[in-house]
Design brief:
By secondary structure, the chain is of the alpha+beta class. The chain has one helix and four strands, in the order ββββα.
């Protein structure tokens, strides 16, 4: 994967943040992604005002697929 040099200056107002489907009911270690953008912003759900990582869509898709296949356990 290539590291994206793009930044999201103020990620809080981004619309459509959604929590990972693997997040438990106790709101433990969770991440959120924001849909509807040309890149994929990702943040820690416990720190919505904290830093945001931004990935190219193809890199994020490859990462999610590898996790689902159990390749990154």
């Amino acid at each position: 994967m290539r590291r994206s040099e793009q930044q999201v200056p103020e990620a809080g107002p981004l619309q459509k943040w959604r929590k990972s489907s693997h997040s438990g009911p106790s709101n433990g270690d969770c991440l959120e992604v924001a849909d509807g953008h040309p890149t994929v912003p990702v943040r820690d759900s416990k720190n919505a005002r904290g830093p945001v990582l931004v990935f190219h869509a193809d890199g994020w898709s490859s990462f999610v697929s590898a996790v689902k296949r159990g390749e990154l356990a």
